[in-house]
Amino acid sequence: MLKKIERFVKEEYVAEVVCNMCGKSVNPEKEEFVHIEKQWGYFSNKDGKTQEADFCEECWDKLCEGFKIEA
Ligand SMILES: [Zn+2]
Known about the structure:
Number of strands: 4
Bound molecules: zinc ion
Number of helices: 2
Strand content: 25-35%
């Protein structure tokens, strides 16, 4: 039962990807997006903290424009 609920929650999450930068809703079945996940460790100031973010293609392009070295 617990497993079923977890799976349902996961499906719900994937079906509703929201871009962290602009707040736009992304349909993962029709649009692509970038997902990043970082678990900070001992050498950071955020030890033990995990951060996740999703970006729509448009915002990812904007982000890349700020890179000194092309992605
Ligand atoms: Zn966006």
